[in-house]
Amino acid sequence: MSFLADTLRWFLDPAHWQGSDGIPTRLEEHVVMSLAATAAAAALALPIGLTLGHFGRGGALAINVSNVGRALPSFAILVIAVQLVGIGPTPAFLALVALAIPPMVTNAFVGMRDVEADLRDAARGLGMRGLRVLTRVELPNALPVVMAGVRTAGTQVVATATLAALVGWGGLGRFIIDGLSQRDFVKVFAGALLVAALSAAAEVVLAGLQRAATPAGLRSAGARRSRAARRAPGLEPT
Amino acid sequence: MVRLDASDPWIRWDWVGSHTDRILAALGQHVELTVIAVGAGLAVAAPVGVIAWRYRGSRGPVLAVAGALYTIPSLALFALLVPWTGLTEVTAEIGLVSYTLLIIVRNIVVGLDGVPAEVRDAAAGMGYRPLRQLLQVDLPLALPVIVAGVRIATVTTIGLVTVTALIGEGGLGQLLLDGLQRDFRTPLVVGSVLSVALAIACDVLLGLGQRLLTPWRTA
Questions:
Q1: Which residue in A78, A174, B14, B79 could disulfide with A165, CB within 3.0 to 4.6 Å?
Q2: Is the CB of residue A181 less than 8 Å away from at least one CB of chain B?
Q3: What contacts A229, CB < 8 A, 6 or more positions away?
Q4: How many Cα atoms within 13 Å fall on the side-chain side of residue A91?
Q5: Shortest Cα distance, chain B CAs vs residue A25, angstroms
Q6: ipTM score assigned to the predicted complex
Q7: d(CA B113, CA B53)
């Protein structure tokens, strides 16, 4: 029990709440880095996935990119990024972007491809032209699956940002990495609690975003949505 | 530590040649950690998955617990265990097994759900008792989906094993860590390439295994 008491004491120590190695600073670094990487990856991945899905082309590519992404360990991506651009925030950012792209491409593709043909026909029958069909019918219908991809990618980014402490960057992973090298297991444990709490919070926020992105008309169609959700690639630990 | 030496090639074959033993040992440990993790994961997930399928009320809670374990970043999960089980293989395996659970349990439930009701009725009508029906009818028909889950779990585990280098295990992850710490590209490239190759090889082998186990499926 004294270990848990030590952990509590670690959290109560005001020194751990201030300065460049304080919890608030590390938390902010972690959140800002995760947001920046997820946003950059979305800006790159979503247009590609949506376009491929809209035209129903490049399915093998869009799906396999996820499988390859799964086989390539995020730890390996990080250390290779260091060799390419040196140590610090840049390799961390690049590695996180690289990691977040595959699930977003795959889900954007699957979401767009699986918009029912009947819906497109009905929209055209109502007199909608190409661009309006795209923005008013295809995108809203694809959105839940697309957002599932953003959620998977975002969760993965927050998790892997922990590892980025290894390549000379900050974030909450610092406490774990530094604690391990100092054999200070209280620090390791406290850092792990912080990381787990942040991941849980990120998961809740992203799940909320996914729900909010689901058009009202689709929310009642529970069966249809769960079918789509099952098809969408699941979360991956990192 | 920052040294972007253009003269350091991506791979130095002489290093590979003189460190074959070490590379093979790392690969061996990687395989061992993966096999134990997926094997133990399957052993735990099989009864849990069957129960979650059979008793619908348990499905939500089971998947919620497995899902919660799944969201904890691997490094944090290992770090949460270190104070209790130390920098050991046990710590690595507990973490790795935890991550396989959600994938395998979910696929067992989905696979069993997919067994056609007519087939189950026919089996019951032929006098199959519940356990015999489960073993001889339901599970074989669910096998493709279950194996698909085992494949994903295996590939994912192979990637996660590299992270256990930080708690003193790691298999090929040790080569990655070594390359990072010494700023030396060769071990890092060898570790990455072998890890990806191992993941692909296991995926292909499990795919072939599934075909052998379900000869009635032509596709």
A1: A174
A2: no
A3: A144, A145, A148
A4: 26
A5: 19
A6: 0.83
A7: 7
Average the pLDDT over each of A53-57, B6-10, B63-67, B202-206 and give the range with the smallest value: B6-10
Mutate to test the interface with A, among B167, B180, B184, B206 (most CBs of A within 10 A): B180
Whether residue B70 lies within 8 A of chain A, CB to CB, comes out as yes
Tell the CATH topology of B22-213: MetI-like fold (1.10.3720)
What amino acid is encoded at A215 in this protein?
Answer: P
Average pLDDT score over chain A: 86
Name the residue type at position A184. D
**Is residue A127's pLDDT more than 90?**
no
| Percentage above 90 pLDDT, chain B | 76
Q: List B residues 137-166 in contact with A (Cβ-Cβ < 8 A).
A: 152, 155-156, 158-160, 162-163, 165-166
The contacts of residue A195 (CB under 8 Å, 6+ apart) are: A159, A162, A172, A173, A176, B72, B73, B75, B76, B79
Q: Closest chain A residue to B199 measured between Cα atoms?
A: A71
Residues A176-219: tens digit of each pLDDT: 999 999 999 999 999 999 999 999 999 899 989 888 888 777 76
Mean pLDDT throughout A103-115?
A: 91
Among candidates B110, B166, B188 on the partner chain, residue whose Cβ is nearest the Cβ of A80: B188
Written as six digits, the tokens of B112 are: 């069993």
Domain ranges for chain B, please list them: 22-213
CATH class of the domain defined by A2-231: mainly alpha
DSSP string, A200-236: HHHHHHHHHHHHHHS-HHHHS-HHHHHHHHHHS----
pTM above 0.80, yes or no: yes
A75, A80, A156, A166: best to mutate for the B interface, most B CBs within 10 A: A75
Tell whether A110 lies on the interface with B, counting CB pairs under 8 A. Answer: no
Q: Rounded to an integer, what distance in angstroms lies between the CA atom of residue B41 and that of residue B99?
A: 8
Q: Where are the domains of chain A?
A: 2-231
Interface check A38 vs B, CB under 8 A: no
Interchain contact, A79 vs B195, CB within 8 Å: no
d(CA B203, CA A205): 33
Interface test with B, best of A79, A193, A205 (most B CBs within 10 A): A79
